[in-house]
Amino acid sequence: MDRQIERLLAKETKRQNGGIELIASENYPSKETRSVCGSIAIAKYAEGYPGKRYYGGCENIDAIERLAQERAKKLFGCVYANVQPHSGSQANFAAYKALLNLGDRILSLRLNDGGHLTHGSPVSFSSKLYDFHFYDLGEDGRLDYDLIARRLDEVNPHLFLAGYSAYPYEIDFRKLQEVINAHNLHSDVHTYFMVDMAHIAGIIAAKLTQNPVDYADIVTSTTHKTLRGPRGGLILSNRLDLAKKIDSAIFPYAQGGPLENIIAGKAVAFKEAASPKFVSYMKKVLDNTKACNDELARRGAKVSGTENHLFLLDVLASFGIDGKTAQAELESIGITANKNTIHGETLPPSRASGIRIGFAAATTRGCSRPQAIEIADLIYDCLTGAKPKSALKAKVASIAKRWKDVNDLTF
Ligand SMILES: *Cc1c(COP(=O)(O)O)cnc(C)c1O
Question: What's the mean pLDDT in 283-310?
Fold first, then answer.
């Protein structure tokens, strides 16, 4: 046994169990999923795809990966799935490669407005390899489909990208497809439609919002956010004509040997997500998120409102502090959330005016609606500085104590 690592993991378990996790991109996979991820499949090299491997001895691994593909296709209702991406970022790296030539134009939402690093941030590979242009949100912080139609005509992109990291409202994928199709009718450049559903994959799997695979050419995702699987990526499509291009963009272009232990874990998570129990879990997530948002609004804080698993709290307008400070204040009482830029941001991203709050992880541990409201009050009281930190910290600990142990989350 490695004592040093064991000790650190014990501390991490204690940290996770003792606090309230509100980072919108985090979640806890089931014990079943986790045990499969630590299985002996970790030892197998399987470069290539089922039936077309570069190594021998892949018959069981092939069956595992095929099962993961079949379950992903069934869960999301599509004809193609690539379960090999090591992460959401690598799924996006490969998706661009499958559809575009280097230097092609991509129209996306800026990181500051809720996009992702891989959607054209100057510090990401994406902006070095492709020519990114951006669309703005409407004045209300929501997607403005007329504005998008105009930007499509202005930019004439080879790819339009939807799907975000910090967008609290529903996305009308059907409407986006309509707008892109209309643009394509009179444009000499064909615009592909890509959706990165990393954050909302679980909501889509539970059929509680529009499914982008019905409208987009290609859909990328992570498997570890609302979907509640192991840390990893996923690519889906209903266009079989793109299958070969996507496959070769993952292997051999972007990656080498797939993580078959994680792919086995993805298979377990896809099965779990297809159950009625997952649908009721996801409904609770949405309900808790809204309850917390609404309570903060009731107390007078400026919040974004929410139609999914997250919302943004404008801490600058509400409490006169920046996101960085708010994040540290919350952390000091045992609540983990992250600073986030908000619509109409006036501060640099390193400070930011907001906090992003999500309930996927807390709900997995058993957070109830009354507790979500109590958490809103704890956040409010912490950030106004109205109550002593020690009292708030004790309340956080007592809520977390009533929840399930993170090591013991059976599905
Ligand atoms: C989280 C996220 C990703 C990237 O996921 P990683 O697995 O961390 O690389 C990509 N796109 C969006 C929209 C995300 O929210």
Answer: 98
CA atoms within 13 A on the CB side of 299: 23
Which of the listed CATH numbers 3.40.30.10, 3.30.565.10, 3.90.1680.10, 3.90.1150.10 matches domain 277-408? 3.90.1150.10
Output the residue whose Cα is nearest ligand 1's atom 3: 88
Q: Is 19 left (phi over 0), alpha (psi -120 to 50) or beta?
A: beta
- For residue 36, which of 274, 262, 270, 272 has the smallest C-alpha distance? 262
Residue 1 CA to ligand 1 center (angstroms) comes to 33
Neighbours of 56 (CB within 10 A): 7
CATH code of the domain occupying 32-273: 3.40.640.10
pLDDT in tens, 213-230: 999 999 999 999 999 999
What are phi and psi for residue 311, nearest 5 degrees? Answer: -150, 170
DSSP H helical segments within 227-359, as ranges?
Answer: 243-248, 260-273, 276-298, 315-319, 323-332
**Rounded distance from Cα 392 to ligand 1 centre (Å):** 32
CA of 241 to the centre of ligand 1 (A): 26
d(CA 333, CA 379): 9
Domain positions in the chain are 32-273, 277-408
- Distance between CA atoms of 7 and 75, rounded to whole angstroms? 38
pTM of the model: 0.97
Q: Is pLDDT at 1 greater than 90 in this prediction?
A: no
Pocket test for ligand 1, best of 196, 220, 225 (most atoms within 8 A of CB): 196
